[in-house]
Amino acid sequence: MPAIELTNVSKVYGNHKNKFTALNNINLTVELGEFVAIVGPSGSGKTTLLNIMGCMDSPTRGECKIMDRSTTGLKDSQLIHIRNRVVSFIFQHYALLNNYSVYDNVTLPFAERKMSKHEKKEKAKQYLSKLGIEDLFHKKVKNLSGGQKQRVAIARALASEAEIIFADEPTGALDSTNADKLMEILCNLNNEGKTIIVITHDSHVASYANRKLFMKDGSITFDEPLIVQKEA
Ligand SMILES: Nc1ncnc2c1ncn2[C@@H]1O[C@H](COP(=O)(O)OP(=O)(O)OP(=O)(O)O)[C@@H](O)[C@H]1O
């Protein structure tokens, strides 16, 4: 089953006097389990595309399907459900609650689930230890380094148990060592079956993905597929 399917998707911003076409008739299928990097110059439409795929915005024309389900005409509550449970997001500037603890941030996706306090704590510990930061459990986010904050953001994405993880410039605020560590974490999650879609300006970051989409002026100009090396 495709994770994402876009058919003739366009996005036009502004009104009739001042229109700007940010996406121009995009057709794209991302299968479950793929690791895709979207690259392209500033203003080429990468974030607009990600926002539509993640149900944070709707197309002006065309259709977006997530896990085989069209998002056209869905009620706000249904879109919220998709954003909470089917997809998750990692952002360049983390989008964490700075004055709250790591535990509070990681357990945010549990808010609407029937779980005991004990269960929440155990699950949070499990995800934090997966990312090697279980010792940060009680720390306030504002006291963490950039690399630590981004790991907390990934732990929160895992806590949502979403199949699809979108990451918009996730290494943009990290040094190269932490950027590599972060991309290795995303590779491991992809190896475990998560579908990962990353926006990046950085070709080294994009090299971790096994498919690269190049964007220019609202179109996908090149789609570099996974090259499967056959054993001799
Ligand atoms: N709300 C909006 N209203 C009008 N124009 C917008 C809006 N959001 C984005 N745009 C325009 O749409 C185009 C695509 O923007 P988008 O943010 O998707 O590009 P991007 O490739 O992600 O850029 P960057 O790499 O700089 O983040 C840009 O020209 C931008 O100015």
From TrEMBL:
Using the record's annotation, list all stretches that form the ABC transporter domain.
Answer: 4-230
Is Cell division tagged as a keyword? no
Q: Which organism is it from?
A: Paenibacillus tyrfis
Q: Which residues form a coiled coil?
A: none
A GO term from the CC aspect: membrane protein complex
GO MF, one example: ATP binding
Protein's name in the database: ABC transporter domain-containing protein
Classification from the root reads:
Bacteria, Bacillati, Bacillota, Bacilli, Bacillales
Family (UniProt): Belongs to the ABC transporter superfamily.
In terms of domain of life, where is this protein from?
A: Bacteria
Keywords of this protein's UniProt record, alphabetized?
A: ATP-binding, Nucleotide-binding, Transport
